[in-house]
Design brief:
The chain is an all-alpha fold. The chain has 3 helices and no strands.
């Protein structure tokens, strides 16, 4: 699967930052995180576009997969 424009930009950002930053650099780590998020978003959109409409139960189950992330951010974590 080809990269989305956003994922491609994030991959380029990683390449640029990795030239002069250490592996534990916060901005480089943020770029890596953003790249993986962009790839996941593109994949989810592709799967949903090809699938029949989800039921409310299926949609809620999928949203729950992301709930712990939202709770962590709201609580001041990651």
């Amino acid at each position: 699967m080809a990269l989305s424009p956003q994922a491609s930009r994030e991959r380029s950002r990683i390449a640029a930052l990795s030239r002069s930053r250490s592996d534990d650099d916060p901005e480089l780590n943020a770029a890596r995180r953003d790249f993986l998020a962009a790839k996941a978003e593109a994949y989810i959109k592709k799967v949903l576009a090809e699938a029949p409409p989800l039921s409310d139960e299926q949609r809620n189950a999928l949203a729950e997969l992301l709930a712990p992330i939202r709770q962590t951010r709201a609580g001041g974590g990651a």
